[in-house]
């Protein structure tokens, strides 16, 4: 990742926009934009309200001091809404799917990851689109003609995104750069179930959890969960351990949080395990510990993105066609994950 100049504490902060255009989805806007800064929702726009809503107090301060950003954001939202409508219509005609539910999703921002597959990619050396699959040739030809939009991508990815990310970190430093330690609990559904080590309430989301035996990390009989968001902006994670047949005293759960030197270690102790097995009701604290917050964010596709690429991925409810990802230049900007989904109900 290319580090922002003189911003050592911001090198892990990401700035992403998630775009979703849809057709024939009942009771849902045809176009939605969600702006995120380090997994915190900072702004929202949809085709129904037709305005940008700010979700953080520090973002309101940004628009007070940087009036041009508010104007730029609103202007781009309207422009993107029209562009996505045209793109969705082109794709529907191309794949002979004029009826039914269709969804186009796109994620753009300053971040890096290596888990996506390319349908179409933007070469940031030549500033032309590359079609690794034959099916993408038609869209490459159309997009290569749009020089104005390529120039917009070039300016945004190499300058605007990074500049605004620096400002976001400056305005939202107390929120974005904070460190919150979690509450860690041992949970079990029944006496024969796996034991779950559950940490909740931590921030940032750069954390790890694993089980150890005699000080060595375990890989077998362990099921690690993903980091999930809570409703209050914090995060949670869990790791399940198959019940050991030997001395429980040899086992412990380790939680590590970025920026915190000391690990949080929880020994496997039957007396510390919380369960509702055999109870007619649960205490409120147990209920809180067992809660798993599931946040459905329309434009979030498992946070997958590929550095310096504009990735267009095609999903079909009957067939998935995508090739393995090509190697990406690893710098700190991206235009990533463009997805087209066809659904039949």
From TrEMBL:
Native source organism of the sequence: Labrus bergylta (ballan wrasse)
Name by which UniProt lists this protein: Ig-like domain-containing protein
UniProt keyword terms in alphabetical order: Glycoprotein
Pfam families per the UniProt record, alphabetical: C1-set, MHC_I
SUPFAM superfamilies: Immunoglobulin, MHC antigen-recognition domain
The Ig-like domain, residue ranges: 182-266
Highest taxon listed in the record's lineage: Eukaryota
Gene Ontology CC: external side of plasma membrane; extracellular space
GO biological process: immune response
Family: Belongs to the MHC class I family.
Keyword presence, Glycoprotein: yes
């Amino acid at each position: 990742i290319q580090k922002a100049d003189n911003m050592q504490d911001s090198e892990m902060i990401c700035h992403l926009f998630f775009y979703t255009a849809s057709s024939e989805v009942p009771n849902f806007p045809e176009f939605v934009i969600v702006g995120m800064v380090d997994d915190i929702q900072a702004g929202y726009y949809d085709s129904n309200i037709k305005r940008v809503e700010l979700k953080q107090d520090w973002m309101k301060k940004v628009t007070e001091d940087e009036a041009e950003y508010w104007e730029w954001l609103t202007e781009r939202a309207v422009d993107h809404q029209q562009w996505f409508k045209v793109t969705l219509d082109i794709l529907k005609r191309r794949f002979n799917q004029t009826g039914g539910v269709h969804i186009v999703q796109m994620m753009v921002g300053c971040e890096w990851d290596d888990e996506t597959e390319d349908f179409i990619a933007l070469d940031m050396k030549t500033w032309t689109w590359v079609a690794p699959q034959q099916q993408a040739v038609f869209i490459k030809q159309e997009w290569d003609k749009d020089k104005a939009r390529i120039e917009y991508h070039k300016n945004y990815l190499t300058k605007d995104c990074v500049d605004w990310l620096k400002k976001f970190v400056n305005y939202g430093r107390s929120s974005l750069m904070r460190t919150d330690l979690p509450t860690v609990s041992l949970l079990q559904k029944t006496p024969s179930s796996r034991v779950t080590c559950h940490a909740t309430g931590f921030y940032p989301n750069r954390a790890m959890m694993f089980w150890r035996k005699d000080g060595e990390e375990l890989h077998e009989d362990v099921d690690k969960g993903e980091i999930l968001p809570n409703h209050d902006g914090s995060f949670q994670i869990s790791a399940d351990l198959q019940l050991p047949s030997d001395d429980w005293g040899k086992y412990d759960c380790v939680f590590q949080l970025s920026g915190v030197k000391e690990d949080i270690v929880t020994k496997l102790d039957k007396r510390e395990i919380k369960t509702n097995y055999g109870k007619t009701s649960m205490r409120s604290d147990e209920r809180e510990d067992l809660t798993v917050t599931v946040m459905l964010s329309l434009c979030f596709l498992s946070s997958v993105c590929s550095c310096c690429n504009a990735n267009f991925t095609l999903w079909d409810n009957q067939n998935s066609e995508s090739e393995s990802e090509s190697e990406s230049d690893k710098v700190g900007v991206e235009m990533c994950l463009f997805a087209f989904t066809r659904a039949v109900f």
